[in-house]
Amino acid sequence: MAAKIYLYGVSPVQQCLLHDNRQCFELYLKAGKKQSPRHREILDLAQKQKIPVKFVDSHDLGRLSGSKLNQGVVLRCSELRKLSLDDFIEHGVSASSRCLLVALDQLEDPQNVGAVIRSAAFLGASGIITLRNHSAPLSPSVSKASAGALEYFPIIEVTNLSDTLLKLKKEGFYILGSTLSTDSVRFKQLPLTEAMVLVMGNEGQGLRRLTEKRCDELVHIPGKKETESLNVSAAAAILIQHLVNHE
Fold first, then answer.
1. Distance (Å) of CA 166 to CA 33, 142, 162, 200, 229
2. Do residues 49 and 94 share a domain?
3. Helix 37-48 with 10-18: angle, nearest 10 deg
4. Span 96-133, pLDDT tens digits
5. Residue 125 is part of a domain; what is its CATH number?
6. Domain that includes residue 12, residue range
7. Residues 70 and 120 in one domain
8. pLDDT in tens, 45-72
């Protein structure tokens, strides 16, 4: 039976059509709408790939996508193809080359997950590690929040984050955990290496205890006392930029 994943929004649909991480079944565009240059690009991509195209009204687009933020375009497609950790390592990424992986420890908000993926892709990280269970599913809303980065950025799906961090340590990766713990150091005081994993914790509880134990260093972003902490996606962007651009 054909999958019923409905991507929506210009960037997610365009990036999906440009990359080979999903099977695409049918494209829906708003009828009677003057096509913008990007809508025309999407239509051309679909026609070149022989994907059926239907022109429908706003009500149908909203019904299919479940969102008013569909920007006049919806794509029915398969689930996202994800990598295993072994696949990622076998493709030549190791401690011998500069690499930053961002691991998400039970992030539950799709907007946060999408925003972290968007920052990681834009700032030059190497991939995202996400949990198969107990985390926000990699849904169309995550793809929309990522501005389409979910459709092409390497996503490594694992069942056990603790075991994954241990395996990466054996591969030579240095594990950093973002936390407000009193044991943490300011992020600019970090000893940096070529291959690192940055672990971002759950929006409410932060890093799990066992995850913290797997980290080589715990770090925090200093700020004014009046504000308790940064949103996880904002914190991730600051840390990723620092870690990717270190000399």
1. 53, 28, 6, 16, 28
2. no
3. 30
4. 578 999 999 999 999 999 999 999 999 999 999 999 99
5. 3.40.1280.10
6. 5-77
7. no
8. 999 999 999 999 999 999 999 999 999 9
